[in-house]
Amino acid sequence: MTTTATITSQQVHTSQTNHFFSSISDPSSQNEGTPVARGPVATHLKFYTAPSDGTAPFNYVETPPEGQPQRNYGDVDIAVQISDIRGQEFKYTLDNNAFETVSDIRSEEKDFNDDTHIKEVYYPEVEQLILDYVPGAKRVLLFDHTIRRANPNAPRAPVTRVHIDQTAASAEARVRHHLPEEAETLLQSRYRIINVWRPLNGPVVSFPLGFADGATVADEDLVGIEHRYPDRTGETAGVKYNPKQNWYYWSGMQNDERLLLKCFDSDEAVGPQGRVPHTAFVDPRTPVDAPGRESIEVRALVFG
User: Which residues pair with 196 in a beta bridge?
Assistant: First the structure.
């Protein structure tokens, strides 16, 4: 799902919010001196609405067959209050909330322009990060990544629709697809799908990533959506609005910060905390000339 939004109508409301300015001491930052909003923000998020004809929802990853829409379901804008976890990162864990933060992580990958180089240099760093910071992780398989850039010519833009990348069915299918000879054994033990998300031009000053506390999201809020690739069909989850959901973001994320987003967990003791809805959102405090957000998310199968 690759819905984009624009920031042409946004304005900075300095009288209503606190701002900090990005540090010029961080050599990895590309947005030095840009004002970054902190604190809670009121905005609108796009939530799932069912197909009007009652059919099962689907989305084509690539160009759809002739006569078929890219997707057959809709969305609705709902006003939501999003809290800032900056300064309170320690309160949230993958097991309790389905998201967790890691700071002060350096990378030897600088450009993020070549997929082969990303896999050779950045993938091993992400694998080691997961082994070091995810309790119980014994084995990691990184199966893909997506780079998103908020500009009209980018192949993939920030997704401004609330979603979860995987469901229970698609997580099992991922194990069988990537590790067919070991799948039956691996599926008998705990396995998770975790996204590792970071900005490429931090601090993030437009289209920040919002994410819900998994413990506040009911199973009834989630709807499986066929995710149709040219060679196979996976499944993602659309998310219906529920006022009980608690939404967060991490203001001004820097290049050396990582956000871990758990999309699935086979450990039933974890319960609803096993998945985290997320979306890019439009922050109404963003300056109209703010640099477009650039980010990478790497998706991992985590065993143990």
Answer: 260, 298
